[in-house]
Design goal:
GO terms for molecular function: ATP binding; protein serine kinase activity; protein serine/threonine kinase activity; sigma factor antagonist activity. The chain is α+β, with helices and mostly antiparallel strands and about 150 residues long. Helices cover about 35% and strands about 30% of the residues. α1 runs antiparallel to α2 and α2 runs antiparallel to α4.
């Protein structure tokens, strides 16, 4: 695939929209003909990022909005998940495996770790009171390329 393709998706910070976001991103990336493993990795990372925005960014307040930006360049997809929620006070602490700011919700504290492990590149920026932005990149080993 040549060129550049972009998409932007904005939706209410409602837990039921997590599945919608996962499917929408999968549909966008399908043009690269990813393997099932690549697609599942991407969907899992998106699920974690969107869930974090809803639960932590907005404290499950459905009036907030989550935005996903997607960019395909060649065989690489970059996904950015953004919220304008409360932000993260201590990013280093939040990125520690098993740390959760919501133990009463039985959160595993593995969201950032999962995103980092399932994607080729992962970066998070957050400012208290101004939201969080998570950028994830993955190179897709196109099945089409294997047979051409």
């Amino acid at each position: 695939m040549n060129g550049r393709n972009e998409m932007t998706l904005t939706f209410s910070a409602r837990s039921e929209n997590e599945a919608f976001a996962r499917v929408a991103v999968a549909a966008f990336v399908s043009q690269l003909d990813p393997t099932l493993e690549e697609l599942n990795d991407l969907k899992t990372a998106i699920s974690e990022a969107v869930t974090n925005a809803i639960i932590h960014g907005y404290d499950s307040d459905p009036s907030g909005m989550v935005t996903i930006e997607g960019l395909i360049e060649g065989d690489t997809v970059t996904i950015i998940v953004k919220d304008q929620g409360r932000g993260i006070e201590d990013l280093d602490l939040a990125r520690q495996p098993l740390y959760t700011s919501k133990p009463e919700m039985e959160r595993s504290g593995m969201g950032f770790t999962i995103m980092e492990n399932f994607m080729d590149d992962f970066d998070v920026h957050s400012q208290p009171g101004n939201g969080t932005s998570i950028a994830m990149t993955k190179r897709i080993e196109s099945k089409k390329a294997l047979f051409n």
